[in-house]
């Protein structure tokens, strides 16, 4: 089905044409007609399936068809679990809504607090936010939830995983009642917790599902190598050297420490790599992602938590340096390639410890991952090791100001009085 077959306003169709979309994805074909009819929607869909465009197109269309008097408080609220995802949604909204008269404002921590505050006070139509800072502004009465007509909750399962459920409920209880607003909720899995949330805060939502195996199967070439832990890095170097098409590579590991260590090893061997972790300041994270998107940076190392919201087109390769412990994370990871109709390759390295999770992954995606045996020439053993970090000298503890160090007192020897008593004077 093509977008031109939908009864969309001219402004929305212009935005769709500008970003180059023509055909609807399965999740768009199922969810957009329901949303345009004013129904609440819960969608089970992975990243890369077009869900962001689905809710933005529906949102802009409904707002254009139901114009309201201009006011300072927002009409629509989009909630997401990570700063990167907020930034990506705003970027998509800028393209799809280029010809719509709506002001879209991102709200998240790590960047100018006062600037975002002033923007809210100046009036916005759509807020895209992480829960924490949004609640901060709401408590200060910088804006009001009273005019919210449209609510979108994106990656609801990650809201739970990242501990945002209390914040989410705080916001939902302050919105107009569900019968007076339209709500769309999207999640990689419609778990019991997510369904419970939908039941409590949505109005008889229609359920839309895109099964995980539909997401992973067709356009992603998957391959698995069984290796020992000591062979993983030499094999990674060999694969990167051989894969001439690997122009934008996302490498996943399971821990922040391993991400930092692997990045140092890649740099030591002249692979320009960067790491995304929760410890990196937001401005720097945004700069790293911008360099990765532009192609200045070929290799990005990330953990699952830190990578939420990394939506980059033209990722040619995803490498699971560590096989994930959660089967859903496997689908999430390889969904970062083969986006928007492109082809992609997913390479997984299963060592003797993490191979234990392979059966669960294959059961979840309902297929066996093709495996291959690496040849001797696939390994690079003569690699360079990063220079060991120098430990900073521990400064001597200075005495508090105004005090001088006193020499230790000698203990005076106590003399016993001699027999015969006191000395006569």
Walk me through what this model shows.
Helix 13 links the parallel strand 10 and strand 11. This protein is globular. Helices cover 36% and strands 15% of the residues. With 425 residues, the chain is an alpha/beta fold. The protein has helices at 10-19, 26-36, 51-65, 83-96, 113-122, 131-139, 156-161, 165-172, 192-201, 212-216, 229-242, 256-268, 282-294, 327-334, 358-365, and strands at residues 41-44, 76-79, 104-107, 126-129, 150-153, 182-187, 206-209, 220-226, 249-252, 273-276, 299-302, 317-320, 344-350, 371-372. The chain has two domains: 3-210, P-loop containing nucleotide triphosphate hydrolases (Rossmann fold, 3-Layer(aba) Sandwich); 214-378, P-loop containing nucleotide triphosphate hydrolases (Rossmann fold, 3-Layer(aba) Sandwich). The relative contact order is 0.12. The strands form two sheets. It has a seven-stranded parallel sheet with strand order 3-4-2-5-6-1-7, with helices on both faces. It has a seven-stranded parallel sheet with strand order 10-11-9-12-13-8-14, sandwiched between helices. The protein has 15 helices and 14 strands.
